[in-house]
Amino acid sequence: MSATRRTKIALVGNPNSGKSSLFNQLTGLNQKIGNFPGITVEKKSGMCTLPNNEIVEIVDFPGTYSIYPRSLDERIVSEVLLDHHSSETPDKIVVVADASNLKRNLLLLTQIIDIGLPTILVLNMMDLAAKAGLSYDFNKLSKKLGVPVVPVAARQGVGINQLKQQLAKPVPAPATQIFPVWSEASQPIKELRDSLGVDNDYEAYLFLEQPLSLTFLSKEHKEIVDSIRERHQFFPGKFQGAETIQRYSYIQELLNEVTLQSSIDEGAWKKYSRSIDRILTHKVWGYACFFGILFLIFQAIFAWASWPMDQIDFIFGFISTYIKEVLPAGPLTSLVADGIVPGIGGIVIFVPQIAILFAFIAILEESGYMARVVFLMDKIMRKFGLNGKSIVPLVSGVACAIPAIMATRTIDNWKERIITIFVTPLISCSARLPIFTILIALIVPDEKVLGFFNIQGLALMGLYLLGFAAALSSAWIMKLFIRVKERSYLIMELPTYRVPKWSNVGYTIIEKTKAFVLEAGRVILAISIILWVLASYGPGDKLERAEETITKQTAHLNISGQDRENLIASYKLENSYAGVIGKAIEPAIKPLGYDWKIGIALITSFAAREVFVGTIATIYSIGNAAKEDDDTDNTIKTRMRQEINPETGGPRFTPAVGFSLLVFYTFAMQCMSTLAVVYRETKGWRWPLIQLAYMTVLAYVSAFIVFTVLS
Amino acid sequence: MAGVPKNVAQMKPGEIGIVAGFTDEHLSVKLMEMGCLPGAAIKFNFTAPLGDPICISVSGYELSLRLEEAATISILN
Questions:
Q1: 3-class SS shares of chain A: helix, strand, coil, % to 5
Q2: B22, B23, B30: which to substitute to probe chain A, counting the most A Cβ within 10 Å?
Q3: Rounded to whole angstroms, how far apart are CA atoms A664 and A443?
Q4: What is the pLDDT of residues A175-201, one digit of tens each?
Q5: CA nearest to A281 within chain B
Q6: Superfamily of domain B6-76
Q7: ipTM, 2 decimals?
Q8: Parent domain of A194
């Protein structure tokens, strides 16, 4: 360990022990999301200045009940704590425990003490403990456990300074050993410690118990552990139950000694919480409330976000135009103004929707309601091979599949997680909305049925339901194909309801939005640059001579400057590489009712579907200047409506073509960032490629059927 | 039902029992880690609208379990 290295402090504890409130109190806005090196688990860390002016790094670990992990995100805790000699090894571990119910919270603490890294016990929620009539002899508790004990109430900010002072002091590794490893294990443990130099017995014991948490070991070392395990016929998990019981009996004795006062009254807030549950998990009201909240979320995502999205669109359009005016014309200016700026704008425009979605999700999680949604939906979701916990990714998918797929990590069953990841992109995300809006406006009349239902609105809702139905039926089909022995279970805590802490909600919004901008942003930006190249360059010198050609063609026509510009832009696109590819795929997309112009849009929107509308706007001769007009949509719409299909002589965008396109975009993958996230989450190309193939075929076949039936 | 120990899945809403043991080793560890320990009082609170999963109270916590998981917890009463 080098002297210049910044002190690392790990926060671990049970779910619902108030860990994130404490993390936010310690770090404030100095937070960032990264990855643990080598493993694809999100690492949430932040900086904290201690009273002695030392700046330390606080790392927030996923909530876990024990050192034996149950899901992917929990495994990181044992992985980091078992590896005592890496750059990620924490110098101090803060175990956060819910003081209002210590018994269960101390299980993890006793395991961490036995691992032998410097540990501090934080008794959080002291306010609730006091309300429940509980108090403890902190000195005795600290002496018995051999670790410092700090009482805090993180939500109220009480005790944070005392904790910071404690963090500034040196903490020795605890000398206490709470759980003596079994005599059956003593021989393999000795061999392990001799051959690998593992620090203590319990750590070595966990090496034997948790073969999956040893990703930090080199291949040779892993083989040594495996061979020792095999030689002594040590079966992982065999003694885990007995260990848990033994630890609990130690904890019970300890609590009997240190609990000063305990009343049997469980506190009014808990009773209150139960009466709320009577409504929110009610046969009728429970579902009514859930759908009411869903409706509110959708309403918010689509109605409230539209104003900031329009502003962002306008600002980026303005920047593009400005750059073109200020910088000398040339390929570099064009790259910045037509490639990079719209590329960044294409990412930023989704920020309002993502922020609103995560505001809701954070409120639902903070209040304890999310666990009830899982509880309500589990039986229904299970029929489709999903888990109650799949509901969170599926709802998030309405805004964007990327954070939604990252949210599947809480699903501990591999099969249910894979199915959830697989079907989430079928949920219509916000990037599909501009495509839906413009095509619906083009082919569905703006009329009302039954007096008040707008047909266009109904069509839009129909597309969302179509996506949802496709997700569920695909899940059901996958359930039949994937066979695993791993059992699915849903043992989950239903936390007591509480008023959300708004600063925690704020931090979640910032953190998730930042993660989206950085994760998806990189891919979208790279793709938009590639697209710019494809659309700006072409074989031969046709592009350079575009202006000349168009001037020649239109010499005898009375054409205004703007229209001429538009014609040149459209001619350039036709003869660019994108245009060449569009023409090349025309035979393949003809059965769906599309021509090469739509083909170009399919190609350019392959990596990010939201590019579709922009491409269509360019192809149908709408230059950038038209954007300043308030009636942009009308302009695009009018141009599209006027487009003639040379074969039929009628309009190009017939209802058949329009619906075929709508269905195609409902089902098609058309999002490189999603593929990248699926690759990362499933650790390989197998699932993203199957997903891409499945969704493309589904989109193609469905669009073909729709076109054939309607025309 | 004489001689066959009762399990949590057979309890009625509002009923209270004492955890006697577990019939599934793998699940028992997870249940114990979450505070469901032999000897602890367990209360069947309510079921989800479709009858499954269920909500129980044990060791001061509310847990949700599927019926098949609840059936692995045997109770004395």
A1: 65, 10, 30
A2: B30
A3: 15
A4: 888 888 888 788 888 888 888 878 788
A5: B48
A6: Ferrous iron transport protein A (FeoA) (2.30.30.90)
A7: 0.91
A8: 183-238
